[in-house]
Design brief:
- The chain is built from 11 helices and 10 strands.
- It has helices at residues 3-7, 25-33, 53-60, 73-84, 102-110, 124-130, 152-159, 178-187, 200-210, 225-233, 247-257, and strands spanning 14-17, 37-40, 45-48, 67-70, 96-99, 140-146, 163-173, 194-197, 219-222, 240-241.
- The strands form 2 sheets. A 5-stranded parallel sheet has the order 2-1-8-9-10, sandwiched between helices.
- Helix 9 (200-210) packs parallel to helix 10.
Length: 258
C-alpha cells in the first residue's frame, strides 16, 4: 500500500479477531484505534480441567521440582489457584521458572515470582535453546498446561535426561455460539477484509466451527510460524505473518501490506 493509505492505519477495514473473549481486548482495541471495524469471533473458551487430581498431586510435591515451565498465562493462573487451595504456598517453591512469551512472564511476575528463563516463542527450538546453558539431567520438571498441546518440549527435555511431568491445568473448548456466529459473519455478500489467528488452536477451532472454505477472499494474518504451519496444513493461504510473535507484531505486519 502507499504511504498515504498507511496514514489512516486500518481505516475502513473489517477485521475478525478469533481470540478467547477475555483475551481479545488488547488486539481489538489496538485495531479499533487504527480505524478498523472489529468483529469478535471467539474460537476458544478456557475451562477448568476435568480432573484436578494430577495437578493437585504435583502441587503437593511442589518442593521436589527443580523447574516449572509455563507456556501460557492461563497455565499460571490455574496453577496458582490450585496452590491456594492446597496446604502449601509459594514459599514451598524452590523451582526455577521458565515462562514462555512476555504475557506468561507478566503473569508469573504478578504473583511475585522470579522468571529465570523466557524463551520468546513456544516453538520447541526456542524453548530448548533457552535451556542449553542448564544441565537438566536428573532434574524434575513440571509443565502445567492445556489438556491438548504439542508434546515436543517434554520429549526433548526427557531426552536430555530430565524427569518431566505434564499435567492438565485447564482445557480449551470451542464456545457454543461460535459456529452460528461464524456463519453470520461469513455468509453475507460482503465478507470481512481480514481474519487474525493468534495460535494454532484458534485455527483448528475456527475450521472445526466454520470450515476453511469460508475464508476464500479474506486476507489471513498469522501471529507466527507455528500458527502459519497449521493454516497451510489446512490449505489456507497466509497474507501476512508477524515478525515478532505478539499481537503488536501482528498489527504491525498488517499495516505493512496496506
Amino acid at each position: 500500500g502507499s504511504g498515504l493509505r498507511n496514514m489512516n492505519g486500518l481505516s475502513g477495514q473489517r477485521i475478525v479477531v478469533t481470540r478467547a473473549r477475555d483475551q481479545a481486548a488488547k488486539l481489538s482495541g489496538r485495531l479499533r484505534g487504527l480505524g478498523a471495524e472489529v468483529i469478535e469471533l471467539p474460537t476458544i473458551e478456557v475451562r477448568p480441567a476435568l480432573d484436578y487430581g494430577p495437578l493437585d498431586e504435583a502441587v503437593g510435591r511442589l518442593p521436589s521440582y527443580d523447574w516449572l515451565i509455563f507456556s501460557s498465562a492461563n497455565g499460571v493462573h490455574f496453577f496458582l489457584k490450585r496452590l491456594r487451595l492446597s496446604s502449601l504456598n509459594l514459599g514451598d517453591l524452590r523451582a526455577q521458572i521458565c515462562a514462555i512469551g512476555p504475557a506468561t512472564r507478566r503473569a508469573v511476575e504478578a504473583a511475585g515470582l522470579a522468571v529465570t528463563l523466557m524463551p520468546r516463542h513456544y516453538v520447541a527450538e526456542s524453548v530448548l535453546e533457552s535451556f542449553a546453558g542448564y544441565d537438566v539431567a536428573g532434574r524434575r520438571i513440571l509443565l502445567p498446561r492445556a489438556a491438548v498441546a504439542r508434546d515436543v518440549v517434554p520429549l526433548e527435555l526427557a531426552r536430555r535426561g530430565a524427569q518431566v511431568e505434564v499435567v492438565e491445568a485447564y482445557r480449551t473448548v470451542i464456545p457454543e455460539e461460535t459456529p452460528a456466529l461464524a456463519r453470520q459473519i461469513f455468509s453475507g455478500a460482503s465478507k470481512p477484509d481480514w481474519i487474525t489467528f493468534t495460535s494454532s488452536s484458534t485455527v483448528t477451532n475456527f475450521i472445526a466451527a466454520a470450515g476453511a472454505t469460508c475464508l476464500e477472499g479474506v486476507r489471513v494474518a498469522s501471529i507466527g510460524p507455528v500458527t502459519t504451519a497449521t493454516l497451510r496444513k489446512h490449505g489456507i493461504p497466509v497474507a501476512v505473518e508477524a515478525k515478532t510473535f505478539t499481537t503488536d507484531g501482528l498489527v504491525e505486519a498488517m499495516l505493512q501490506v496496506l
